[in-house]
Write a structure and sequence with these properties.
202 residues, alpha+beta, Alpha-Beta Plaits, 2 domains, globular
């Protein structure tokens, strides 16, 4: 599989605008952490193979109706028409976990995935607005430590690491592996149970 040719951001924005405005749409900006170091050390041929592997992971693990476009060397945009923000978070985080589990890159130069997520509504209405919001979410994800998915919310990011200790996150990851469920679904179940308990007391 060859890597897709780079598509301009304007073209991607227009493609997003083509989806019906009355439907929700979630947009993800991705970037491969550490790819530059791996590419420099391993060479362009291995770098291209890594990029092809990543693109294959996107195209084979996401819904077929997803829009997947490469906009830079190791940057892709994914748009999920008709998919809520919460479901898009689950989908792209599963790809992130997969990339980490297969050991993309090398032992000396590991490569992981950072992503930023925005949606219509509430983060914008046009393709340009959603791309800008997703790009800002991606930048903050990388500044916060990389290998994570961030959601754009005005001037701050919502990320699990803001609320949970490393030990708690490690236990959550272990439970996810043991139950073959995503971390997001486990957190939603815990929240639903808590809300149900409070509803009974009110």
């Amino acid at each position: 599989m060859r890597i897709s040719k780079v598509v301009g951001r304007g073209e991607v924005a227009l493609a997003i605008d083509d989806f019906a405005r009355d439907l929700p749409i979630s947009v993800v900006m991705t970037d491969l952490d550490g790819f530059g170091d791996f590419n420099d050390a391993a060479g362009r041929a291995d770098g291209d193979r890594l990029l092809a592997t990543f693109e294959r992971a996107l195209r084979t693990n996401l819904p077929k109706e997803s829009l997947v476009d490469r906009i830079g060397g190791d940057e892709w945009v994914v748009a999920f028409p008709g998919v809520s923000l919460e479901n898009a978070l689950v989908l792209i985080n599963e790809v992130r976990v997969h990339i980490e589990s297969i050991g993309l890159g090398s032992e000396a130069h590991p490569v992981t995935l950072s992503a930023g997520l925005a949606a219509r509504p509430p983060h914008g209405t046009t393709g340009d607005e959603l791309l800008r919001a997703a790009d800002e979410a991606l930048s903050r994800s990388k500044r916060a430590g990389r290998n994570r998915v961030g959601i754009y919310v005005e001037d701050k990011m919502v990320m699990k690491s803001n609320y949970y200790s490393r030990a708690t996150l490690d236990r959550l990851a272990a439970l996810s592996r043991a139950t073959n469920r995503t971390e997001a679904s486990l957190l939603r179940e815990a929240a639903d149970k808590l809300l149900a308990e409070y509803a009974e007391e009110m």
